[in-house]
Design goal:
The two termini are 22 Å apart. The strands form 2 sheets. The chain has a 3-stranded parallel beta sheet with strand order 3-4-5. By secondary structure, it is mainly α. The protein is built from 7 helices and 5 strands, in the order αββαβαααβααβ.
């Protein structure tokens, strides 16, 4: 059997148990969940846990909205976002360790985020992506940075003996 605790908009703090500073997910002051995802999950017998996490902490949806409405392709913008992405690493490591404690028998697979924009200038000329014409390469770099940060967090936790892998 399987279960899903995924929730749109959730951040690492919504996954962590309360004992580690986790808080239930809220939207506009309204509590969406009574407990955090790990406090809700019964993972004692789980043999596989898959995670995709970090994009909301990095503000990726906000970035897409800002860049769709204005030219965000500046060095200052990219550096600021890169710093936010880099700052997610300790929290990601904390989540991975908490998942391992909650699911001691499980193999943990952490999935990266897909590239949302094509890699070549020719492919980026797609009319459907015209709002992002000047930003696509920068946004790809930020997505790659998030995936690299996630992979680095996984490697750190794996060195402590946790059965975790970035895929």
């Amino acid at each position: 059997s399987w279960a899903s605790w995924a929730c749109s908009g959730a951040k690492t703090e919504n996954v962590l148990p309360r004992s580690l500073g986790g808080v239930p997910q809220q939207r506009l002051g309204e509590t969406l969940d009574r407990a955090t995802q790990l406090d809700s999950a019964d993972l004692a017998r789980a043999d596989l846990v898959t995670l995709t996490i970090g994009g909301n902490d990095a503000g990726f949806i906000e970035v897409l909205l800002v860049c769709a409405l204005s030219n965000c392709n500046t060095r200052t913008f990219e550096q600021g976002r890169a710093a936010i992405i880099d700052a997610t690493r300790p929290q990601l490591e904390k989540v991975y360790r908490a998942v391992a404690r909650k699911a001691p028998r499980a193999r943990i697979l952490v999935l990266g985020y897909p590239g949302l924009f094509p890699g070549t200038k020719a492919e980026q000329a797609c009319a459907g992506l015209s709002r992002f014409r000047g930003e696509q390469t920068m946004l790809r770099r930020l997505g790659d940075r998030l995936n690299s940060t996630t992979a680095a967090a996984v490697r750190t936790v794996a060195r402590s003996g946790v059965r975790i892998q970035y895929v």
